[in-house]
Structures are given as C-alpha cells and as structure tokens.
Design a protein that fits this description.
By secondary structure, the chain is α/β, with parallel strands linked by helices. It has two domains: 198 residues, P-loop containing nucleotide triphosphate hydrolases (Rossmann fold, 3-Layer(aba) Sandwich); 101 residues, Orthogonal Bundle (Helicase, Ruva Protein, domain 3). The chain is 47% helix and 15% strand. It is globular.
C-alpha cells in the first residue's frame, strides 16, 4: 500500500472515529472504572461480533450494556436465562388471532439491536442453541417464515463463574461463536468509593442519545478499511497456529497440555477486533500492539486444556501469555 494512501486513510479514520470519544464520555458518566469492558463492548459493536462477559454479580455488566444501547438510541432487550426458558420465549411464536381467524406471528425479545442474555449458562442446550443460531445466521424462523434480524445486532451474554450448581455450560463449539470472551474483575478501592457515592445519590446519571444506529453501520464499513499489513496477518496466524502446534513454535513445554487449539474463527476475529481497536485508537492501520491488546479476549475461550494442564494448574491465560512472549513480533 502506498505511503500516501496510508496517510489519506489515517486522516479519514481520524475524522470518522471522532464519535468514539463522545461514546466513551457518555459511558463513563454512568460506569466508573471498567475501562477494559467498555472498550471491548465498542470493539464488538464496531467489528460486528458478539461478546461473552464473565464476572461475579454486581460488576455493572447489565448497566454497561443498557447504557451503551441508550447512547446509540437502539432497541434493547434483556433476557434472563432460567432453566424453564423455552426457545419460543426467546424467538417468538405463532398465536391464533380470533379477530383475523388465523395464526399470526408474535415476535420474541430477540428482535432488538442489543440483546443481553443474562446468565446464559442457566438455561438448557435447546435455548442456548436457538440464541446461537440467530447469532450466526442473523435471522429467525417462526413457523415457516424467516425474519432477518435488525442491524446492528449484538448479543452480549453474561455468565457467573461462581455458581456451577444447576447450570448448563456452553458447549465449546458454541462458545466459539462469540468474538470475545471478556473477564471482568472487581473495581479498585477508590473507584468503588465513587460507585458507592453515585448509587446513594437521589438521581442516578443516565447516558444521552449521542448516535443513531446508522452511524454505527457506517462506522463498521470504515473499520473494514483499516489497513492490515501482510506482516501483521502472518503474526496473527503464527499466534493461532502456536496454540495448535506448540512444539513448532518453541513451546514444546505445552505439548500434552493443549487438548485443542484456537479455530480459524480466532484468526478472523483477531484481525477484525484489531482493526476495530486501531479505529478506537484513531489510527488507519493495525500495529502489533493492537493484536496483543485483543489476543487474550479472542483466544481465551478457544483453547481447550487437558487434565494434565489442570493438574499442573496451568490456565489458558498462562498459555496465551507464553504464546505472546514467544511468537516473533513483526
């Protein structure tokens, strides 16, 4: 790519990404701390990828998603997953209308722009796969009619890592449909003091509508134009392949620790997430640092460990850290 092209692209992206600061400002009026989570929500939004959020209760997962939907003037639906939920409760169903004397479609909560699937691991496989199918196909079939889902369509699923009692863990193949798996931690002590103050005030801050859904769709096209050099493409595939064939990448100590490595979706999503990350940083091209910034969230749910790894207390985080430290940076 010519130097002048990069320069032009950079200027264009500087201009087009101005709204990122506005969204961030709105979000941080409501959300204190949790910068990583807010940034990841934006990456999912701009790269058109779904997100799995994992964290203990009370870390503002739901608040962050509602605030984002509000800032974008988008339709938001929250679905609390429970063991007795049925696919029809999610997608909708055919009901008989006496007035029309025929069956009519009653659409379910899935017909929104932002879907918050709260505690997704609380409901059985049937409901999970109904949601995951609409995530993948971006359409829903009720009776014999297929309805396309509105764009932007973003699923943010949360799961609580503490309670495993009465839960249905998501199958590996289905977890792979999520672009990012974000692990959320407790706030810092000074942040928690501010959270406490904010919550005992008489009025709670709210985000204002600062964008339209069309703006997001337009921004997505721009994100796709962010320049990704072949050297960076090689870096991405090296990272993915080292999780499949560790000994080829001087990581033979993980031989026998990894049950299965990251799928091709990992490479695709790493490229897309890195482009969105560069866009958020107001840059027209991807640098190795962008890859390193998104690698954990893209890879952590795509590497399966053997019992041997678990016995030795080796986690996917350890493996990803080692991969990033070992694979040559372009």
């Amino acid at each position: 790519m010519m130097q002048t092209d990069i320069k032009e692209l950079n200027e264009r992206i500087q201009k087009e990404s101005a709204f990122v600061d506005i969204i961030n400002m709105e979000m941080h009026k409501v959300i204190i701390g949790q910068k990583h989570m807010v940034e990841r929500l934006l990456i999912g939004l701009l790269a058109n990828g779904h997100i799995l959020l994992e964290g203990v209760p009370g870390l503002a997962k739901t608040l962050a998603i509602t605030s984002l939907a509000n800032a974008i003037d988008a339709k938001f639906a929250r679905i609390q997953f429970t063991p007795d939920l049925l696919p029809a409760d999610l997608l909708g169903t055919m009901i008989y209308s006496q007035k029309k004397e025929e069956f009519v479609v009653r659409k379910g909560p899935i017909f929104a722009n932002f879907i918050l699937a709260d505690e997704i691991n609380r409901s059985p496989a049937k409901v999970q796969s109904a949601l995951l199918e609409s995530m993948q196909e971006r359409q829903v079939t009720i009776g014999d009619t297929t309805f396309p889902l509105e764009e932007p369509f973003l699923v943010l699923a949360t799961q609580n890592p503490i309670e495993q009692e009465g839960t249905y863990p998501l199958p590996e193949a289905q977890v792979d449909r999520f672009m990012l798996k974000v692990v959320i931690d407790y706030p810092q002590q000074d942040e928690e003091k501010m959270i406490m103050r904010q919550n005992i005030m008489s009025t709670f801050p709210k985000t204002n509508n600062v964008l339209k859904t069309e703006d997001i769709l337009k921004a997505r096209d721009v994100v796709r134009d962010v320049y990704l050099d072949e050297k960076i493409e090689n870096y991405i595939t090296d990272i993915t392949f080292s999780s499949r064939y560790p000994s080829k990448f001087k990581l033979s100590k993980f031989e026998g620790m990894i049950n299965y490595g990251a799928s091709p979706r990992a490479s695709i999503n790493m490229a897309l997430a890195a482009k969105a990350f560069a866009f958020i940083k107001r840059r027209g091209y991807v640098i190795p640092e962008d890859i390193r910034a998104v690698a954990h969230d893209v890879m952590r749910h795509r590497i399966g460990l053997t019992y041997e790894a678990e016995a030795e207390n080796i986690t996917t985080e350890d493996i990803i850290n080692e991969i990033l430290n070992t694979v040559e940076v372009p």
